[in-house]
Design brief:
Strand content: 15-25%
Shape: elongated
Order of helices and strands: HHHEEEEHEEEHH
Largest sheet: 4 strands, mixed
Number of strands: 7
Helix content: 25-40%
C-alpha cells in the first residue's frame, strides 16, 4: 500500500460528520509513529513467531563483508536491529552478548572465545568481536521508511517499506492513534478489532 492509498484508507476509516480533518503532514506523523510501533512489536516476537519474520522480511538486509579494526566492526548506518553476525570465511556465528555476559565470557578460562566460537558486544554503532579476526557479515533489520524523515518523500512509496498486509495493519494502528487523539468513541471498537486480529 502506498502513502497515497494509505491516506485515502485513513480518510475512509475516519469519515464521519463531526470528525476533525487531518492534514497530510499530520497523517504522515501518525503513520510514522505506527510504523515504529509495528516494527518494534515484530522485533519483540521474532524469536517465537515465524509470521513476524515473514512480515518484517522486506526490511531484512545482509551487509557486505565488514572488515575488523582491532576487533571492532563498524555497523551499517541503516541498521536498526541486528539479527545475526557471522564470519565471512567459515560462517562461524558470533554470539552477541549483553555487557555483563560479555565481560564474564571474555575472562572465562574454561570457555575462552576462539576462532570457532567468537563473541561480540554491541556498543553504539560498532560490534566488538573477540576470538576471531576475520571479516564479518551482519544480517539486520534496516531502519523503516519514515515519511517525515525522508528528504525525497514520494507518495508512491510503500508505507514504512512494508508489503500490503503489513501496510494495512500499520494504517489501522494509525487510525487507532488518531481516534485516541480525538477522544473518538469509536476508538474502543477499532482497538477491539486490532486485538481480535492478533488472536
Amino acid at each position: 500500500m502506498t502513502y497515497t492509498e494509505a491516506f485515502v484508507h485513513i480518510d475512509n476509516l475516519l469519515d464521519k460528520s463531526g470528525t476533525a480533518y487531518f492534514t497530510e503532514a499530520e497523517k504522515k506523523s501518525f503513520l510514522d509513529l505506527s510504523v515504529m510501533e509495528y516494527t518494534k512489536s515484530l522485533i519483540n516476537t521474532l524469536e517465537s513467531d515465524a509470521q513476524s519474520m515473514e512480515k518484517i522480511s522486506p526490511l531484512v538486509v545482509k551487509s557486505s563483508s565488514l572488515p575488523q579494526s582491532s576487533g571492532v566492526i563498524t555497523l551499517p548506518t541503516d541498521a536498526y536491529h541486528i539479527l545475526r553476525a557471522y564470519t565471512s570465511t567459515n560462517n562461524y556465528a558470533i554470539n552477541i552478548m549483553g555487557y555483563g555476559e560479555y565481560s564474564s565470557a571474555k575472562n572465562d578460562p574454561f570457555h575462552k572465545p576462539d576462532t570457532k566460537n567468537p563473541i561480540g558486544l554491541l556498543r553504539g554503532g560498532n560490534l566488538d568481536v573477540l576470538g576471531n579476526t576475520e571479516n564479518v557479515y551482519v544480517e539486520y533489520i534496516k531502519v523503516p521508511y519514515l515519511a517525515d524523515e525522508e528528504s525525497s518523500f514520494d507518495n508512491s512509496t510503500r508505507v514504512g517499506g512494508y508489503d500490503l498486509n503489513s501496510s494495512e495493519e500499520i494504517v489501522n494502528i494509525a487510525v487507532r492513534k488518531m481516534m485516541l487523539s480525538l477522544e473518538d468513541p469509536r476508538y474502543q471498537l477499532q482497538n477491539n478489532e486490532l486485538t481480535a486480529d492478533k488472536r
